[in-house]
Design brief:
Distance between the termini: 39 Å
Shape: globular
Strand content: 15-25%
Radius of gyration: 19 Å
Structural class: alpha+beta
CATH superfamily of one domain: Dihydrodipicolinate Reductase, domain 2
Number of strands: 9
CATH class of one domain: Alpha Beta
Largest sheet: 7 strands, mixed
CATH architecture of one domain: 2-Layer Sandwich
Length: 253
């Protein structure tokens, strides 16, 4: 099976999952977009939504991994396994769908056999907002996820590292994570608690849902099409069903 067929298969599965929940009339699935549960990302989201720094204009995100196994590295896997989180962050932070993407990439290592381990995606969002996402999966120095949202009268951004700064021997040191599970451990715990709490209380999950996964996959497919063609690609997402717009959510388990 070719890589583009894999994406189409995943997208088809996503819309089938959405259709099944709509037919059932309730949401059962919560996806693992853990940044929505990270305290720093939540603080940025709160600052943007408050309007205290004006309306949002530009999302700038970066996502770096120390290394990837060359046998598993493909341009497609960078989008589907890594950038997918950045695409969701853009949608979540702005509360709007992505309209267009332009993805370019480069291979930085001969052992990757041409796979684009460094990719940059430019986006238009919600009919007027802008976004960029840099994904670099062989950055060597460590694991780092960051973002800055530029608004009309200020900015909000994730702090670089949640570690102490140590000065020693005429040098300054700050530990950098190398493991995403260490960086986002509290967020992973929070998202699991949210989901299991909904189950215990007979409620529908209120975290990232099947629609969020489907919409992110549609954007990811457009990123791959842009990477192959070398040109911008539109992102066409159907109208969001009422179930995922907060309508008719009085149904309980």
């Amino acid at each position: 099976m070719k890589e583009d067929q894999v994406v189409n298969t995943e997208e088809s599965a996503g819309i089938e999952q959405v259709s099944a929940e709509v037919e059932l009339g309730r949401k059962l699935v919560q996806l693992g977009f853990m940044r929505r549960f990270d305290k720093q990302h939540l603080a940025v989201k709160e600052a943007v939504d408050s309007g205290s720094i004006g309306s949002p204009l530009l999302f700038k995100g970066w996502h770096r991994n120390p290394h990837i196994m060359s046998s598993m590295a493909t341009s497609e896997s960078v989008v589907l396994d890594s950038m997918i989180h950045d695409l969701d962050s853009v949608r979540w932070m702005f509360g709007s769908e992505i309209d267009e993407v332009y993805t370019r990439g480069m291979s930085t290592r001969p052992d990757l056999e041409g796979a684009h381990d460094l990719q940059l995606t430019q986006m238009s969002v919600g009919g007027g907002l802008l976004a960029t996402a840099e994904v670099y999966v062989t950055a060597e120095y460590g694991y780092e996820v960051g973002l800055e949202v530029v608004c009309e009268s200020g900015t909000a951004q994730v702090a670089p590292f949640d570690e102490a700064v140590v000065r020693r021997d005429a040098m300054q040191y700050q530990r950098i994570h190398t493991d995403p599970f260490a960086r986002f451990q509290p967020a992973f715990v929070a998202e699991m608690e949210r989901w299991t709490g909904a189950i215990r209380n007979g409620e529908q999950p209120d975290g990232p849902d099947s629609w969020d996964g489907y919409a992110a996959l549609v954007a990811a497919e457009s990123c791959l099409a842009s990477l192959r063609s070398g040109s911008p690609q539109s992102v066409t997402v159907p109208q969001r069903p009422a179930l995922y717009r907060g309508e008719g959510l009085g149904v309980v388990w």
